[in-house]
Design brief:
Oligomer: homodimer
Largest sheet of chain A: 9 strands, mixed
Strand content of chain A: 25-35%
Shape of chain A: globular
Number of strands of chain A: 15
Distance between the termini of chain A: 49 Å
Helix content of chain A: 25-40%
C-alpha cells in the first residue's frame, strides 16, 4: 500500500485534531506543517513529531515530498490557500465551508479540473460509519416513508467583536461556520435538492447571522427544519421522521451512535461504533483511497455536492441581505 | 361561591375530555349537552350524568339555566356557533382556533363587545400551572437572556380524504389544528409580536398544509423555530434556550412537568404538578372566575391575543397561497 504524505496549512485547533487523526493511521505520513508564524509551526511540529515546519504556505505547497494538503485556515482564506496548492499540483482537502460562496467554489472546481488534481471539502460527517448506517436504514425504509427532518447545529459563544465568528471580515456567523453541516447532511440523506428554501436570521451588532432558521422543502413532500447559531446552544442533533418511526442521531456531525424508534416511541435498534481516533480519520482514509486510485474527486462528497450546498447558502444569505465585505463591489 | 352552569355544544372527543374536567370541579355544574344528532346528545348526557340533552344548538343557546357554553365543534363552525350563543347572551368558551381567520375573530370580538358577554378561545395551555412556572423562570432570568425557542406540534395520521384534518372544507391541515399551539405559546412567553414571519409548507393532495415550518423573529434578537404536522410525528415539546441554560417542556401543550438545564446540560431544576383532572380544569376555572367577577375577557388570554395569533396565521397561509373554500369570493 502506497503511503500518502500529508501537509497541513494552518496550525490552529482543527489542525491539531486532524493531525491526531492522521498520526493514528497506517500508510499515512504527516510530513509538514505550515503557519505564517514559524514559531507556531515549529511548536505544532514538535507536538505531533512532524519533520518539517514552514513559516509560509508557499514553501509547503512547493515541497515535492507532499502528496496532499489539508487546509485548516479561516473560511476567507480557503480559496487562496487551495488555489496555491492546486497550482502547485498538490491534492487538497480543505476545511468546510470550501469557500465563502458559490463563485469561489466554481473557481476552485475549474482550477482543480484544469490542473487535474484532487480537491475535496472536508465534510467529514458524510464519511462517518453512522452516516452510512442512517443512509442504509432510509434506503431499507426502516422508518417507512421519510416525512420530516429536524436538525440544528448551535453553540453559544459570548459576543466578542474580535472573534472570527462575530466578524464579517472573516465571513463569520452561524451559517458558514456550522449551518453548513445540517444543510449538507439533509441534502446528502435525501439525495435531492430542495425545491423551496425559506429562512430567517438574527443579524446582531456583529453584522453576521448570530442565529438562523432555515426550512428546505423537497420534492415528494419532505420538509427539513434546520437551525444554526453561534449565540445559542440549540443542540447538534438530527431527528429523521418517517411514517413508521424515527431515527435520532445525537451529535449528528460527529456521530458514533444512532437510534431508531418505532411509532410508539420505543427504541428498537441502536448502532454504535466508537471512532477509531476522533472521527476525522474516515475522511482522511477516503482522500488516501482516492489518491491511491488516481481519482480527482470523492464519489461520496464530489465538488458538485459542495457547489449545490454553496448555492443554497448563497440563496439563504440573499434572503437576509447578508454580504461579506469581500463580496461587495 | 356561585355555581357556574355549563352547556356543551358538540359531543365529540374533546367535548368528552372537557366534560370530565367540568364534572371534577366544585361549584361547577354541567347542565346540558347539544348535538345535531339527538341520540348522540342523549348518550353523552347519560355517560356524564347531564340533565338535559338537546338535538339542536339553538335550544341549548336559549336555555335560561345555562351561564356559559363550551363550543366543541369543528373550526369552521366556531364562528356560527359562538355567534348563536353570544346573541343569546350566553358566555362562550370556544375551542381553538377560535375561528379560521382574522376577519371571523374580529366579527366575534365585536359581537361579544356589543352583547357585553364573556368570550374566550379555549387555549388551555396558557392556564396550565407549568406554563406559569415557565413564565416565572423566564422573568427571573433563570436561563439568562432568552435567545431561541424551538417547538413543534406534530402527529402522524394516515392520509384520509374524508377526515376533517385532510379536508379544506373543514379548514383542515396542521396550522389550524395544532400549529396554533406553539405559535400562541411562543407569543405568550415572549409577550411581544414577531417582526418577521417566514414559513413553508407541504400542501399535499389534501390541498391543506400536511406539515409546515415557521420561523418567527422577535425584536431583541430572539428566533422561534416552530413546526407542525398532521402527517409526521414531529413531537410536541418546547425547548427554550437562553445564554445561561435551557428550559425543556415535554408535551408543552398539556404539560404537567418542566425541566431546567444549565449550560453544561445538567438538570438543575424540575417542577412537576399532576393535573387535578386532565388539564382542562384550569381554563374552566378561569372562565368560572371571570363570570363570577363579571369580567367579559380573561387577562391571561384576552381576545386581543387570539386576534394577534390569527393575524400571524393568516400571514403564514398567505405565504403558502392557502385559502379555505369558504374564504374564496
Amino acid at each position: 500500500m502506497k503511503t500518502i504524505r500529508w501537509g497541513i496549512i494552518g496550525a490552529g485547533r482543527i489542525a491539531s485534531t486532524f493531525a491526531a487523526a492522521l498520526k493514528s493511521m497506517e500508510y499515512t505520513k504527516l510530513t509538514a506543517i505550515a503557519s505564517r508564524d514559524l514559531t507556531r509551526a515549529e511548536e505544532f511540529a514538535e507536538r505531533f513529531q512532524i519533520k518539517k515546519a514552514y513559516g509560509s504556505y508557499e514553501e509547503l505547497a512547493r515541497d515535492p515530498a507532499i502528496d496532499v494538503v489539508y487546509i485548516a485556515t479561516p473560511h476567507t482564506e480557503h480559496k487562496m490557500n487551495s488555489a496555491l496548492c492546486l497550482t502547485n499540483k498538490k491534492a487538497v482537502l480543505c476545511e468546510k465551508p470550501l469557500t465563502i460562496n458559490y463563485a469561489e467554489t466554481e473557481y476552485l472546481m475549474s482550477l482543480a479540473k484544469k490542473q487535474n488534481v484532487f480537491l475535496m471539502e472536508a465534510m467529514w460527517t458524510k464519511f462517518l460509519p453512522v452516516t452510512a448506517v442512517v443512509k442504509s436504514w432510509l434506503a431499507e425504509k426502516k422508518i417507512g416513508e421519510l416525512r420530516h427532518i429536524r436538525s440544528s447545529f448551535g453553540y453559544s459563544a459570548a459576543f466578542d467583536g474580535s472573534s472570527r465568528i462575530y466578524n464579517p471580515d472573516t465571513a463569520g456567523g452561524a451559517l458558514l461556520d456550522v449551518g453548513v453541516y445540517p444543510i449538507a447532511y439533509v441534502v446528502y440523506l435525501l439525495e435531492e435538492l430542495p425545491e423551496q428554501v425559506v429562512s430567517s436570521a438574527v443579524i446582531g451588532r456583529s453584522h453576521v447571522d448570530e442565529q438562523n432558521v432555515i426550512s428546505l422543502r423537497f420534492p415528494g413532500g419532505i420538509l427539513a427544519d434546520i437551525s444554526s447559531a453561534v449565540s445559542a446552544d440549540t443542540g447538534n442533533d438530527a431527528l429523521i421522521i418517517g411514517d413508521r418511526g424515527r431515527i435520532f442521531v445525537p451529535n449528528f456531525w460527529k456521530a458514533d451512535k444512532v437510534e431508531r424508534y418505532d411509532t410508539n416511541g420505543q427504541l428498537v435498534e441502536t448502532y454504535y461504533l466508537p471512532h477509531k481516533k476522533n472521527g476525522y480519520e474516515y475522511e482522511a482514509e477516503e482522500v488516501n483511497r482516492c489518491l491511491r486510485e488516481g481519482e480527482t474527486e470523492s464519489d461520496t462528497h464530489p465538488l458538485s455536492s459542495t457547489l449545490e450546498v454553496m448555492k443554497i447558502m448563497d440563496q439563504i444569505r440573499g434572503q437576509w441581505g447578508l454580504k461579506y465585505p469581500q463580496e461587495e463591489n
